[in-house]
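Recap from last week: sequence in, structure out.
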Amino acid sequence: MTILQKKYSDEFKLSTVKMIVDQRLNAKQISQDMDIPYGTLKAWIGHYKRDGANRFQHDNTQDKFRILQKQYQIVVQERDILKKALGIFSNTKQTNTSL
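Predicted structure tokens:
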């Protein structure tokens, strides 16, 4: 069984944490209401208290780099498959079909 891990945007994390901290809301209740694991929400709050809003405001360079790496790997695999196919088709014997 595969457990899918939800991805939350930095904006969502920051707005949720600020709502809890600024309005002094119950994190446990917000966790249930918004279907966010309580441990995840507590971690966000801890990061916010320790690092401030900067923790959730980073450029997406690392994310973009990971995406480009995956796309590159796919392109390399496709190229290798095409090379093998070209080798297979170019090595087949040409039979004379003239009568």
